[in-house]
Amino acid sequence: MSYRPLAEVRKTLRVRWYRVPIERAKLLELSRRSDLQGWFQAGGHLALFALTGVSVYLLWSQQLWLGFAVALFLHGTVASFFTGIAPHELGHGTVFRTKWLNRFFMYLFSLLSWWDPFDYASSHTYHHRYTLHPEGDRENLLPLEPSVASPFMLQLFTINLLTQQGRTFGKGGLLSTIFVTFQSAFGIVGPGRAPISEWLAALRSDQPDQARRSMWWSRTLLLFHGSVLAVALVTGQWILPLIITCSAFIGNWASYFIGMTQHCGLREHTDDFRLSVRSIRLNPLAEFLYWRMNWHTEHHMYAGVPCYNLKRLYREVADEMPEPRSLLGAWREMRETWRRQQTDPSYQFDTPLPPTAKRVRAGRPDALEDSIGELAPEGLE
User: Fold this and answer.
1) pLDDT of 195 over the 80 cut
2) Which of 3, 315, 328, 345 has the maximum number of C-beta atoms within 10 A of its C-beta?
C-alpha cells in the first residue's frame, strides 16, 4: 500500500480525540513531575538490572551452571523491558522534574538495549497524534497476530536472535537489530521487513535532522557494544557481552506478552482512545517493570501525565472508561479476534463502554489536555 508524504498528512489529517473530561486543577496535579518518583522508577529498574547482572557474573565465575541459567533468564527478563519501554516514558520527558535527568536516563537505557531514541521520537509523535490511523501512524499496523507459535516462543524464552515481535517499531531480535544498526550508521534504510522499513524511510524523509541524529547514535551503539566485545576478548571475560550487549534480547517473554496488549485487535480510524487502546491490570512487579504502561488508554488520553500517576488518572475518569482487562483476558480477546479475522479480515474488536460513557465532548482541548510531554522533535512541535 502506498502512502502520502507525512508532511501532506499533517496538513489534512485532523483527529478530534474524545478525552474523558477531568477538572483542570486535578489534571495539573496529576501532570506534576517528581524527581523522587523518577529515581524510584528509573533508578529502581537499573538497580534490578545491576543485581541480576552481578548474580549472573558470580554464578558464572563459580561455574554453577544451573543457577547461572536461571539468573541469566531473570536478568534478560528485567533488561527486556529496557527496549522501547523505559526510553518511551523518558522520551515523553515526564518521569523526572529535572529535564536533564530524563535525557540522561533515556540515553542510558537506549544504549544498553540498542534502542534508537531519535527515529522513535518521530514515530511516536505520529503515533500519539494519529493513533491507529494508518495514513499518519504506522508504528503499529493492524492486524497484529498474537502469536504463540512454538519456534517464536522458543526464541522469546531463550535468546531472541531474529524474531520481529509483531509488526511494530524497533522490536527485532539481536542479529536483526545489529544489522539494522549497521545500516542506520551509514544512513541506509533496508528494503526488508516492509511495511516497517517503509515507515522508517517515510520518517527519515520527513525529519532529516532526526535521521542525522539517528545515524550518529547508531555509530555510538556500535562503538559502545564493540568496546564491550573487545574487552571480553582481551580479558577472557566472555560473560560481559551476555550481561550487557545481549541482555535485552534474552527472556523476552514477559515484555512480549504484556506489550502486545496495547492495540492488538482493536479499532482503526476512530477518534476514541477507549476503542483503539487497551488497559490491563498487572501485579505490582510487572507494572513496575512495564513502567505503568499497562494503563495505556489513560496514557494516550492524557500523555502529559507521568507514568506513576496513571492509575490515579484512571480512578478519576473510571466512570466513562472500559473495565481494564486481566492479562489473560486480554490475550483471550486478542486470540478470538485474530481467529475471526482469518475469515473476516475487516473485523475489529469493539470494546464495550459503560452506560455512563459519553462519545462527544464540547469545546476544544487546551494545551495541557493535548500534551504529549516533550516527545516531539523540533520538526514536529
Assistant:
1) no
2) 3
CA distance 262 to 195: 19
Go through the chain and tell me how many residues it has. 381
* pLDDT tens for each residue of 243-287: 999 999 999 999 999 999 999 999 999 999 999 999 999 999 999
Radius of gyration of the chain (CA): 20
Specify the pairing of strand 325-326 against strand 280-281: parallel
Distance (Å, whole) CA 84 – CA 261:
15
Residue with cell 482503526: 268
CA distance 321 to 259: 20
Enter the pTM of the model. Answer: 0.95
Please report the sign of the dihedral spanned by the C-alpha atoms of residue 155, residue 160, residue 164, residue 168: positive
Largest CA distance in the chain: 66
- State how far the Cα of 232 lies from the Cα of 242, in Å rounded to an integer: 10
Contacts of 126 (CB under 8 A, 6+ apart): 6, 136, 137, 138, 139, 203, 380
CA 212 to the chain's CA centroid: 22
Does residue 159 surpass a pLDDT of 70?
A: yes
Cis ω before 195 (30° cut-off from 0): yes
More confident residue, 323 or 168: 323
